[in-house]
Amino acid sequence: MTLPAAQQPHWRDLPEFDLIEAELAGALPLVAPSEIRAAKSALAVAAAGGARVLQIGDCAESFADANRATTGRKLRTLADLSGRLAARTGQEVARFGRMAGQYAKPRSSPFETVLGRRLPSFRGELVNGPAPEAADRRHDPARMLRAYDAAAAVLRAVRAHRSRAGQGPETGPWVAHEALVLDYENALLRADPHTGELFLASTHFPWIGERTRGLGQAHVRLLGAVTGPVGCKVGPAATPETVVRLCGLLDRHREPGRLTLIVRMGKDAMRTALPPIVSAVHSAGHPVVWVSDPMHGNTVAAKTGQKTRHLSHIIQEATAFRRVLEEAGQHAAGLHLEVAATDVTECVGGPVTDETALRARYETLCDPRLSPEQALEVIDSVF
Ligand code: PEP
Ligand code: CO
C-alpha cells in the first residue's frame, strides 16, 4: 500500500526515472550494518544518561563540498565542538555530522520569488539546483545518482579521517541526514546479509523532519521498518499523545539508542510544550535520547531580507530544554545544530554584532548556520 508522503519531488513520470531507480537499487550500500550498530550502541549509552550527543553540520550540503579537504574541515569542527562538550560535561560525546546525504530539503512553500521571478523552490541538490533559473529548478531524478556519489565521496573522507585519527567505526564520527526523498531512501533499503534485518544503507542515522512526521505517512513507516538508530523532530504543535504514538511506531521494542527525539519548539513554546511530552514519553516506557535543535524554531527575517537566527534565542531555547529535562529527572543528552566549518556571518550574535554584519559571509544554501565560534558559545552557555 502506498501511504501519503509530503514534500516529494515531481519526477516519476519522466522516462529516465525507472532506470535511475534500478541503478540505485543495485548500488553498493554506503554504510555497513556494523557501523549502524555501533552508532546505536553509543546512543544507548546516551539514553541511559552516560554520554552526550552532538549532531552538527550544514542545513543543506552541496555536491561541491564532497571532497576530502572540505570534509576534513567539517570533521575538525565536529571534533572541536564535541571536545568542548565533553570537557564541560565530563562525559563521552557521540558525534554525528549532518553530512554525506543532507541533500534534500522540505520547504514551506513550493514556489518562491527571486528577483521578481516566481520559481519552484530549491529543494536541495538531490532534487534541483539553487540557481534562480527555471531550468535549474526542474526536479531531476538523475540528481539522486549524483547525491549517492557525493555521499560516497564524503564517507570515504570520513573513514580516512577516522583511521588517521586512530579511531575505528565503533567510536564514530557517524553521518546523519533527514530521510526526506522516498525514491532515494527506499532504493537504498538493504537486508543485513547476516541477520536479514532491513537497514537504510544511505546513512548511519536518518531522521524524520517536522513536516513529514505524520503518523499515517510513509516516512514514519519507512523509519519504523529499519533497524538502527533513527531520529524524529518534535515541534511546538506536537501533542503528548502524538509523540507517544510516534514512539510506538518508531521504537516498537523500547530499545535504548533506537529513537532520538530532536526537540525544536522555539524559545517561547519550549517551557510549556515540552514538560507534558517528556512526562508522557517516560510513562510510556520509551528510553529515548533527548536532543535539542534550538535553530529551526527560531528563524526570523532580518531587515536586510536574509533569513537569520539570534544566538541569544538559540541559547535561550537550549537552556530551557536542559532545564525541562532535568526538572523531570531526565538526561538532556545534547544538541543538534546547523554549523558551518568556516566563519560565516549568517546568525546574529558574538562577532556578528548586528543584522548589517550578515552581509559579509552569508553563504548558506538554505538556513542560516552558526560559525564554529558561535557554536562554542552555545555549548558553553548551555552546558
Ligand atoms: C532541518 O533540520 O534542516 C529541518 C528542515 O528541520 P525541521 O524538520 O525541524 O524543520
Ligand atoms: Co535547516
UniProtKB/TrEMBL annotation:
Q: Give, as in the UniProt entry, the pathway in which the protein acts.
A: Metabolic intermediate biosynthesis; chorismate biosynthesis; chorismate from D-erythrose 4-phosphate and phosphoenolpyruvate: step 1/7
Report the EC number(s), separated by commas if there are several: 2.5.1.54
Q: Which PANTHER family does the UniProt entry name for this protein?
A: PHOSPHO-2-DEHYDRO-3-DEOXYHEPTONATE ALDOLASE (PTHR21337:SF0), PHOSPHO-2-DEHYDRO-3-DEOXYHEPTONATE ALDOLASE 1, 2 (PTHR21337)
Q: Which residues bind phosphoenolpyruvate?
A: 98, 210-211, 233, 264
Q: Which EC class heads this enzyme's classification? A: transferase
* Keywords for this protein: Amino-acid biosynthesis, Aromatic amino acid biosynthesis, Cadmium, Cobalt, Manganese, Transferase
The identity of this protein, by name, is Phospho-2-dehydro-3-deoxyheptonate aldolase
Q: Which organism is it from?
A: Streptomyces pacificus
Catalysed reactions listed for this entry: D-erythrose 4-phosphate + phosphoenolpyruvate + H2O = 7-phospho-2-dehydro-3-deoxy-D-arabino-heptonate + phosphate
Q: Which SUPFAM superfamilies match?
A: Aldolase
> What GO molecular function terms would the record report?
3-deoxy-7-phosphoheptulonate synthase activity
Q: Which cofactor does it need?
A: Mn(2+); Co(2+); Cd(2+)
Pfam families listed in its UniProt record? DAHP_synth_2 (PF01474)
* A single GO BP: aromatic amino acid family biosynthetic process
Which family is it part of?
Belongs to the class-II DAHP synthase family.
Q: Where does Mn(2+) bind?
A: 59, 296, 338, 367
Q: How is the cofactor bound?
A: Binds 1 divalent cation per subunit. The enzyme is active with manganese, cobalt or cadmium ions.
